[in-house]
């Protein structure tokens, strides 16, 4: 993902960049899969989708929505999630190959929701720079859309962890995120390339 320094989600970024990118990845995988089947190559046609923050920095996976600008639209609360963000997370939930969030920095709000939608999550260990996962809406008075409620209730089975996420807006360190089952692996290093490389090792 690359949209400014902290890869915030906007309608344009989702509809003009992320959704077409997902279509391109699926199309490429299907072409390879069909070719492998035609060649009777049992090992061919495998694939994994890896989502990583801007690769030239190690501060942000994504800082979530471009909230201050999005809420200027009077139709934001009725249109943005049903028409823009929910189709993105639905696409990830139904993607035909494994999905990995390679979390190379702070993962806040909607970015946390996006990462939770992925099948696997790999995160920097924070040894060279702080990195947190946090649903921080409670700290600035923004409510959760119903889609976020459904996502986290489905993906986080421990009610104590869910309470810390939703009611406390807790900032999970990488070690805390691993202990809570929010991420699958931690990686020592400070670049997206290192994380993405390790993410491939946990893909199918």
How would you describe this structure to a colleague?
There is one protein chain. The chain has 204 residues and is α/β, with parallel strands linked by helices. Helices cover 47% and strands 12% of the residues. It has one domain (11-34, 45-201): 2-enoyl-CoA Hydratase, Chain A, domain 1, CATH 3.90.226. The protein has helices spanning 11-38, 67-70, 76-93, 110-117, 137-140, 146-155, 159-166, 174-179, 192-201, and strands at 49-52, 60-62, 99-103, 106-108, 120-124, 133-134, 185-187. α4 crosses α6. The longest helix is centred in the N-terminal third of the chain and has 28 residues, at 11-38. The two termini are 22 Å apart. Belongs to the enoyl-CoA hydratase/isomerase family. InterPro entries: ClpP/crotonase-like_dom_sf (IPR029045), Enoyl-CoA_hyd/isom_CS (IPR018376), Enoyl-CoA_hydra/iso (IPR001753). This is Enoyl-CoA hydratase/carnithine racemase.
Structural topology:
Elements: H1 11-38, E1 49-52, E2 60-62, H2 67-70, H3 76-93, E3 99-103, E4 106-108, H4 110-117, E5 120-124, E6 133-134, H5 137-140, H6 146-155, H7 159-166, H8 174-179, E7 185-187, H9 192-201
Parallel strand pairs: 1-3, 2-4, 3-5, 4-6, 5-7
Helix pairs in contact: 1-3, 4-6
GO biological process, one term: fatty acid beta-oxidation
Protein name: Enoyl-CoA hydratase/carnithine racemase
Organism: Rhodofomes roseus
In brief, what are we looking at here?
The protein is built from nine helices and seven strands. With 204 residues, it is of the alpha/beta class.
């Amino acid at each position: 993902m690359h949209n400014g320094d902290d890869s915030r989600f906007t309608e344009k970024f989702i509809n003009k960049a992320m959704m077409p990118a997902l279509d391109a990845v699926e199309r490429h995988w299907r072409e390879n899969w069909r070719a492998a089947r035609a060649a009777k190559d049992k090992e061919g046609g495998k694939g994994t989708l890896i989502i990583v923050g801007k690769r030239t920095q190690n501060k942000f996976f994504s800082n979530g929505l471009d909230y201050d600008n999005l809420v200027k639209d009077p139709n934001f609360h009725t249109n943005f999630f049903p028409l823009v963000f929910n189709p993105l997370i639905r696409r990830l939930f139904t993607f035909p190959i494994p999905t990995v969030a390679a979390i190379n920095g702070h993962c806040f709000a909607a970015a946390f929701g996006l990462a939770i939608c992925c099948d696997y999550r790999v995160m920097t260990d924070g040894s060279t720079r702080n990195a947190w996962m946090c649903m921080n809406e409670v700290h600035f008075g923004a409510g959760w859309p119903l889609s976020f409620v459904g996502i986290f209730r489905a993906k986080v089975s421990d009610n104590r962890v869910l309470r810390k996420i939703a009611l406390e807006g807790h900032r999970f360190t990488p070690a805390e995120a691993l202990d809570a089952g929010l991420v699958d692996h931690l990686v020592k290093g400070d670049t997206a390339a290192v994380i993405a490389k390790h993410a491939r090792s946990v893909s199918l």
